[in-house]
Give the backbone structure.
Amino acid sequence: MTSDKSKKANKDKKTSHAPAPKTGKSKSKSEESKLKSVYAERFATLTEVGQNSLDLLLVIDKTGKVTYANPISLTTFGISLEEGIGTDAFTYLHPDDVERVFTRFIELLQTPNGSIRDTVRTIAANGEIRELELVSTNALDNEVVAGIIVNGRDITEQTRYVQQLQALEERFRLAFEDNMAPMIFTDLNDRVIAANDAFCTMIGFSREEVLGQNSTPFTYPEDIGITEDSHQRILRGEVGQSRYVKRYVRKDGRLIYVEVLRSPARDEDGNILYNVISERDITDERTLAAELSHQALHDTLTGLSNRALFNDRLDQAHAKVARDGGLFAVLLLDLDDFKGVNDSLGHLAGDELLKLVARRLEKVTRATDTLCRFGGDEFLYLAEGLRAPADAQLAATRLLGALVDPFFVAGTQVEQHASIGITVSDATTSERTDFIQNADVALYEAKGEGKGRFVLFTPSMHQQAVDRFELVRELRQALHSGDLKMHYQPIIDLATTEIVGFEALMRWHHPVRGWVPPNVFIPAAEQSDLILDLGYFALREAVAAASSWEKSDDEGKDLYVSVNLSARQFHDPALVSIIESVLAESQLTREQLIIEITESVTLLNVSETLNVMEHLSRLGIYFALDDFGTGFSSLSYLALLQPKIIKVDQSFVSPSFENPRNDALLEAIISLGHKLNMTMLAEGIETTEQLERLRSFGCELGQGFLWSPAVANDEIPTMLKRGWATIAER
Ligand code: C2E
Ligand code: MG
Ligand code: MG
């Protein structure tokens, strides 16, 4: 259509000016100057306006031919004046715009003095597409002009710029607004000029609240300096960008940790325009990491340092002393009879008490020292920078002093004291583990000396500990080599002096030491699981021996055997089944076995102990409460444990010194047992006077050297055959 129209236009008007691009170059010099003068004459006014204008100015006649074009128009199309004048204006139009422009052109021709505004695309001589914003005015009636004045601007660059800007903005929106990472832009005063949604969500303030502020109002006070400093360093050019961690206080008051990357945006000359700050909330990571490292080094119950942390400090203290000299001490603190609290008030109360103890100890812990929960009811204290060993004792006094006042746990007032073992560093202890081990040895002494005190480790204690260890090792051997034996002491019916049974007592004949008394080796065995093996050995031996004993009288009453059980055996889950199977393998009836327990079983978990006892009672096994009166168990325990027999301790029967009140006490104990329906047995009867007294108090049973010490099993048949008579009666 364009080409048709332009051909038509060229055909119609046969001017001397041929269409510019094709024919312009063939014009003669004279034609050219003639054209110029006509042109100048005709468009004098327009020339005046258009010559120096930055806008395009053209005149088109009603056929679409260019009759005037100002210099900038010619430049825009890339043609000369000669090429331009007389040419069909539509030939320069972008094919897509021709139809529209043509239609509007026709309309304009029919509207005298009318004008239209349009944006059209043109194709310059070099093929470049340019966008023009044009206003076309119908000036056909104007004598001089006699055409359409087209006035306008080349907006190609502007449009391109706007498009670029739009694309940039879109990219920016994606990169900033929709970015998952919290981002802000700040000006040179570090005031926020833009903030994305992620940032606002992170700190809980709205965009309005954030814009125009520097980050001070949102920053945790201590961290304001960090922000300011990094901003200034970038401004001063000391760093290209900076990365740091700071804390914000959210609008809801919550503290958050963020990792910040701050980089400046610069112009072409390198001047900073604004700061681009992108941030990352690392609160969760931080808390998790902090929790993990805290958990790794602290005790969960009390929050005190744990062994790992303590060992680390100990290593450091050790290295420091080796380098610089000086002293440090390790104090091992163990709560006295803590089990009692756990048992009587429950484990929760026990935990509560441990926490309270930890707080008290913490209060008297020096800043340079380390307090740690070693496990269970044990605490370790590392005292550093000591001048003399006596300083360690001061620390121990301080720790024990902190526990003097009673505690309140589960609504009850509780007394909780402790014992402490102390080691002071010296040049000879090279191994780190020695310190805690030696403190443990000293602690053992402190407990042995009656608790509630501290003991300083000495090398001789170490020897004793080694001896104890050695003793246990040998005892274990004795159990297998047969050096351990059971002996039996007769139990006498005080009214008839007949033997009613025997107590099984353990004897150890050591190849070098000779007879080692059970008071020495039993407590040593109780420090380890060896006591379980000893206990079951005693039980098996005793039951086997008792099976061989002949009936003692015509009435068919069987002799019984009384076996001592260590408190620790009550903790052994296998206890009941072992007793059952030992009995099942023997000819003994259940009533023929009596289990002796001391009050110390009540120091263990009471409900656990009662469970075991109930189980055994249901099997028909009776209990005897040994060494009654020496412990501190209350009468309520007596009612709870319900032993069949109470064995009154020999300290009541044959007191080491005469005291008129002894008799009264003995009588009272016996009558108390009777009131509770228990059989009373007196231990350690050595004289007939004691026997007579006990008889008069109504005590039923007794044992003692008056009749016989414990003897080997092979002596029992003769003893039984002889019947019994007191030494006095013999
Ligand atoms: P226990 O159960 O109270 O045993 C009574 C202790 O008093 C025995 O000491 C016995 O020899 C001693 N004895 C008996 N009559 C007299 C007397 O008239 N005068 C004096 N001074 N002492 C008398 P032994 O055999 O030295 O045993 C000491 C403790 O060792 C026992 O006290 C018991 O607690 C423990 N024991 C002994 N054998 C075993 C055992 O097989 N298992 C456990 N767990 N402990 C045992
Ligand atoms: Mg006993
Ligand atoms: Mg006893």
User: Anything to note?
Assistant: Residues 1-25 have pLDDT under 50 and may be disordered. Residues 489, 505-506, 517-519, 522, 535, 538, 564-566, 596, 626-627, 650, 683-686, 703-705, 709-710 surround C2E (ligand 1) (CB under 6 Å). Residues 459-481 form the longest helix (23 residues).
